[in-house]
Design a protein that fits this description.
binds magnesium ion; single chain; 0% strand; 6 helices; mainly alpha; 174 residues; Ferritin; 76% helix
Length: 174
């Protein structure tokens, strides 16, 4: 059985992942409205990945005979001044998610809940990647810095990002 504390924190994490999905969908829509189809694509892939994160946690809670409690998803911002601002927000948000994942890992360790600790390893690694990719995108936007042709080329590059299902789901086909 999951401890009550961990169970509650996992349910809160599902909400955070779905909020992340909603945030990135909002960025995607804002970018698309401004004609930045590549940036819109990058964030749409991000939106899909966040839904995977929530699904992995839901599957896990169910596999431990726990109940998934879905809470309301809070409103997200709808407008950004530039792609740079979007990626800066992305990095700030992912740092908060990293802190939440680390907290989950701490609770699992306190509980000596080895199954939960193992499950969370994937999320710990994923957060390293999330922060790294946000930092890379910030650098790319800073390099472009107001150059319209540069932004055009960057947008084209981001159009190539393809969604692939997160590996813990690929193995279970959920
Ligand atoms: Mg996530």
């Amino acid at each position: 059985m999951l401890s009550e504390k961990l169970h509650e924190a996992l349910n809160a994490q599902i909400n955070a992942e779905l909020w992340s999905a909603y945030l990135y969908l909002s960025m995607s829509m804002d970018a698309e409205a401004k004609g930045l189809k590549g940036v819109a694509n990058w964030f749409y892939v991000q939106f899909q990945e966040e839904q995977d994160h929530a699904r992995i946690l839901m599957n896990y809670i169910l596999s431990r005979d726990g109940k998934v409690s879905l809470k309301p998803i809070e409103a997200v911002r709808t407008e950004w001044a530039s792609p740079l601002e979007m990626f800066q927000d992305t990095l700030a948000h992912e740092k908060e998610v990293t802190a939440m994942i680390n907290n989950l890992a701490s609770i699992a360790a306190e509980d000596k809940d080895y199954a939960s600790s193992n499950m969370l390893v994937w999320f710990v690694d994923e957060q390293v990647e999330e922060e790294e990719s946000a930092r890379e995108m910030i650098s790319a936007c800073e390099a472009v810095d107001g150059n319209k042709f540069g932004l055009y080329m960057l947008d084209k590059e981001l159009a190539a990002r393809v969604y692939t299902q997160a590996s813990p789901l690929a193995s279970t086909n959920a």
